[in-house]
Design a protein that fits this description.
Strand order of the largest sheet: 1-2-3-4-7-8-9-10-11
Number of strands: 11
Distance between the termini: 39 Å
Order of helices and strands: EEEEEEEHHEEEEH
CATH architecture: Beta Barrel
CATH class: Mainly Beta
Length: 233
């Protein structure tokens, strides 16, 4: 029987710490918080917060020599995070014959290394910075990609084990002037990760392009000129 419900709400605070435009390289750090109790137990949402400090990087290959120009639209991104649950274990209680609570099961909540990467090929970058092949406009806005999202328990693993689980996600993103949409398949890497292939879809709005001096204005610093989608990859 299937279940349909929301997982816990998650927010991420991110800060860029290094940027090298000439070599298309950027690094950021961030903190993600999964707010316990905001999702449904039926789909495994936790009742406690989880805090995940994370390091991110992105590298474009636009600095390659002319002989490798066809590889320039390739970009690689990656991230490594350490998920820290708000409590070390969860106890399940039953009722004693005398009516008192009885702890019948204790499950340790592990600390988990979340890691992954993507490799993508930007058709907008190919057209704007390498060569215009005269392809249909729809194709010129596509970014085919393969993404890996993996989790490895590394501490407090007495009941969780240490096996890595996750998915490999082939898919594509279509980039417009003010939004992007994407779809990916979710292919489990082992039986512990699942036995069926899933699908995930994404809609992202570029608030800085929709309204750069209003809802898209930076909280800190000055507003920047709206970017062309052919500069995103």
């Amino acid at each position: 029987m299937g279940a349909n419900a929301f997982q816990d709400l998650e927010t991420t605070f991110k800060y860029r710490v290094f940027r090298d435009p000439a070599h298309e390289f950027v690094m950021s750090v961030g903190l993600s918080i999964e707010w316990g109790g905001t999702g449904a137990k039926s789909v495994g949402a936790d009742p406690f917060n989880t805090y995940t400090p994370t390091a991110y990087f992105g590298k474009g290959l636009g600095d390659l020599p002319n002989i490798l120009s066809w590889i320039r639209p390739v970009a690689i991104t990656g991230q490594v995070g350490y998920a820290i649950p708000g409590r070390n274990f969860t106890r399940t209680f039953g009722i004693d014959p005398d009516g008192s609570d009885l702890a019948i099961d204790t499950e340790f909540d592990p600390r988990v290394l979340n890691w992954g990467a993507t490799i993508q090929y930007s058709m907008p970058y190919l057209k704007s910075a390498v060569v215009d092949l005269g392809l249909p406009d729809f194709i010129d806005h596509l970014i085919p990609l393969v993404e890996a999202n993996l989790q490895t328990p590394v501490a407090n693993t007495l009941t969780a084990g240490t096996m890595t689980t996750g998915t490999i996600n082939p898919g594509a993103i279509w980039v417009g002037n003010t939004f992007q949409v994407g779809i990916e398949a979710l292919v489990p890497i082992n039986r512990q990760s699942g036995t069926n292939v899933g699908v995930i879809a994404q809609l992202r709005l570029f608030l800085d392009d929709i309204d750069p001096h209003g809802i898209g204005k930076p909280i800190f610093g000055e507003a920047v000129q709206p970017a062309s989608p052919f500069g995103r990859h």
